[in-house]
Each structure stands twice: as C-alpha cells, then as structure tokens.
Amino acid sequence: MAPPDDPTLEEALAYLDSHVNFETAPARRMAPTLDRMLELCRLLGDPQLDFPVIHVTGTNGKGSTTRMLSALLGAHGLSVGTYTSPHLERVNERMAWNDEPIDDDTLTEVLLSMAPYEDHLGVRLTHFEVLTATALRWFADNAVDVAVLEVGVGGRWDSTNVADAAVAVVTNVGFDHAEIIGPTLVDIATEKAGIIKPAATVILGETSPELVPIFEARPALAVWHRYEEFGCERNVTALGGRLLDLRTPGGVSSDVFVPLHGPHQGDNAACALAGAEAFFGRKIDDAVVAEAFGGVSVPGRFEVVHRRPFVVLDGAHNPDGARALALTLEEDFAGRVPDIVVVGFTVGRDPGELLDIIGVNKARLVLTCRPRSPRGIDAGVVAAAARQLGANAEAAPDVRTAVERALELATEDEFVLITGSLYVVGDARTVLHHR
Description:
This protein is an alpha/beta fold. It is built from 16 helices and 17 strands.
C-alpha cells in the first residue's frame, strides 16, 4: 500500500483502523509473538535501540505512573518520549514528546510511512503494532533522551517489549484481561514479568508472597521491593490532591504534593520516584520532585471536569479500579455519595460485582449505556444488574444520551459520577468538552 500523494489524518486513521484491534475485538485470535514487531523494527533501523527506555506494566496505576515518571525525567531537562494506551478521545494522546501529544500532520506522516514496510514484510500487522512502531520511530526521529513505554496488555508478548528497558516498573498484579493473559494471578504475573531484561533494575510494586518470587526469578540487575527499598510512608488528603512522604534508597522526600485524588496515587508516585532514581542512579533533589509531581495530570482517572454540578470521570473498569474509586470517595471526599452514576462496561467484566463495589445502590439514579465498542455490554443488562442491587436504573441508548440526561437531571449541588469502561469515559469527556 503506497501512501497518498497528499495524505490527510482521516486517511491515516483509516489505514490504522484497517488492522485488527484487540482492544475492541471480542477475543485474541492470533498466536502471541514478537516476531512481526521485531522484523518491522529491523526494517525501520531498530528505533527502540536509539534511546534508553523505562518500561511500565501493572494491572492498575501504570498510566498514572508513566505520566509521573515522564514528569520527573522532564523536570531534569531531558527530552522525553511517552507512550500510553488506550486513548480517551484522540489517537494522538498515546504518544507525546515533552508532554505534547503528536500533532495531526506528523501523526499522518509517520503512520502512513508504516505501510510500505508492512507491504515488504508480507504479513498483516495489528493495530497496536502499527501504533507502537509509529511511536518508536517518532521518538527516534526526535532524538529523545529517554522514552517511557506503558505496556498495552501483559508484558511478555506486548509490542512494547521489543525494547530492552534500563528500568522495569511493575505497579501491581490483579485480575484484568484474564481471558488473554490468565486465568490465574500466577499466569498474569508471569506475563508481566516478561518485560524484565538482564540489565534492568526492577521496581516491584507487587507485594504478594505468592507472586514476588515470579519477578525475582527473572535475570535482572537489581530488584527494588515496595516497603523495603521504596514506598509511600505518609499519604494524606490535601486540598486538590494528596500530600506524600516518599522513601527510596536515596532517602525520604517529604511533603510532596500530587494533584491527583485517591490514596492509590501515593503508591503510584512511590513507584515513579523509585523508577526515576533507579534510572539516574541517585536521589532526585526534593525541589525537582515537587516541581514534577505538582504539575501532573491524568485524564480520566478521578478527573474533576465540572463543579456545579460536581462531575467526575473515572475509568474504574476492573475490580481493583472500582475499589480504588470507592476508597477515593471515602478518603478524599468524606464518603460523599454520587447522586447520579453514568456507567457502562465491556465484555469480560461482571457488571454486578463492579456496581456493588462502587456502591451504586446509594445513588438516586443510575444511567447505564453501552460503550462504543464491539465488546460493549448491552445497557439493559447493566441496568438489570444495578436493579438487583436495589438501585433505580435507566438504560440509555448511548454515552452521549446518558451524559446529557444526567446533566439535565442534576441540580447544581449534586454529584455526577461517570465511570466504567474507558470508552464511556472518553466519549463522555468529548460530550462535556463540547458543552
């Protein structure tokens, strides 16, 4: 496939969307392999070898940790490439250079430049492979000093694992994507441990005695354990975020303000700071830590997007995420109960379990919707699960309708929570921005 003479972003995205996308496909149907990705990188000149990498995996918190790591590296004046997934509103969000997402023209150019290489390979790549190769090439073209790569799913067979990371961060291990990398926690941990390379320092946030040995068994330069070499020693609610004391082998950084909600962000910050100090091989100055963390934002993770009414977006799409949401409401917002909940899930989730953890029976209204994904669960099924918990629930035909209905019904003093699938959160974010 030859790129058009005068390509547009729409044509580039159409090329991207012509590839199988396991983020939306009902199930994985291809044998896991890095062969396609390694061969593509070879044809591109192995861009993943042009810069050191910090690799981040985990069931929850890896997106927040990735952004915090990038902020710490950028505060040192480094040129930083950041690769995250999935996006909420636009594909551009997935790759950033010094915290600026790739612009439309550059994304168009680099995306379509993949087509001739794919033709040369003679095999069809996946959606995520194309995006990952695009990010790696763009980072190399910009001669970044370091790249922070967030794993898509698992680790061992993830497209990002073509990189040999200097630092491998594992935030935690829980049940998510078990149909792909499970079914047990041991299986999931084994997949995540696959990002650890012999020359890497491992920042291990997981503490389960059953799972820690899986990571320790991988050849590595060193392993830093949570509660031993690093950790969050103080984690209290502050106005607009959390106030933390973070400990690493270099010492303690005290009174660090992070403008993110939820006690789990203290654990993410500890992983990020440990990862950055492992990369530099020294303690980071407290003023740099304060500057970096003070400017961090994580869209779609307990993101306050409106005040009257109070509207929050949170992609609590698995049990651990739902528990983190419930604890955030309890600690950061004095147990305030959402008056209206807009929610939708994808296949592979148990709606009843997640709705119960979130506590939707306490809301005066639950508006369910089907995420804009082939894997979306019918809104009526989610509404029925909410009613079984004693909630007053209505099914809406789509995310836009559910969000607009919620804003129409909410008074200025009420609290609207929009949660569940990141597809719901992303579409809701677009609706709210347009308003």
